[in-house]
Amino acid sequence: MNANNIFLDPSHREVVQRIRDAHGAVFALADKISDLLHRMLFAAKTLKHDEQQLLLSCLLPRALTAFQGAAILAENGLPSEARVVLRTLMEVTFRTVAIAKDESVARTYRLQDEVQRGKYLRKFQSLGEAIRGSVGPTYAQLREEIEADISARKIENPTTLWYADRAGMTDYYNSVYAVLSATVHVNVRELESSLVLDSEGNLSGLQYGPSDTELDHTLLTAFEAVLMCASAVFSVIDTELNSEFETLCKEYKTLEHELLPRT
């Protein structure tokens, strides 16, 4: 392996295989979850004019790509990056479960895009004159129109916690999501894993390269999130694969008990 390329070196595939072999049961279940949930997604029938079902149908693929992204990063020995993507999966899960539980949340979620557009325009207004001048003055008028629309329709801008509350997942927000957020924001504690200390606690070097640190825990959390997501979606949208899904959920619980025994 070229030490200067690390993760980009073609021979890194050997590292991937070693990590997958070392965590065979976890990756075997990851493959099964991906297979079944994609079959459920492609077999689902959505009512074209039902806002709740349309949004759920769009959120499930987002959950699946985040789930697969976390697994790919984990097998490549990138634990911090896997947790970053896992945080995205948790945000998708909060929104999906909340929308499945309460149809009115679907409208709130859709309209929130107007607030985001307004925020982007305010950010744009803070850019240097050279950049703003090259676009022209139309952005100011557009911002006024958007803000007037937000005010007239009383459009809300709910937080991630708001969605977690309505999903009945506040504890997940205050535990799993909070920990994952520390990784996203590059908390100093996250950087400690890069330090190599001697027996007396003195710095003796830096550690850099593929790692499978906490891989089982990370992927088991991803399994739980994507299964909750799918369960919420298919509580609203019909599927003919319920029995397979129930069996898969039991497999997840069994593996979780084996790998993360509670004392």
Strand pairing plus helix content: what structural class? mainly alpha
Low-confidence stretches: none
- What's the number of domains? 1
Order of helices and strands: HHHHHHHHHHEEHH
Number of helices, where a helix is a run of at least 4 consecutive DSSP H or I residues: 12
Number of strands: 2
Q: What is the radius of gyration?
A: 22 Å
Q: Which strand order does the major sheet show?
A: 1-2
Largest sheet: 2 strands, antiparallel
Beta-strand residue percentage: under 5%
- Tell the overall outline: globular
How far is it from the N-terminal to the C-terminal residue, by CA?
41 Å
Helix % is over 70%
- For the residues shown, what is the average pLDDT? 88
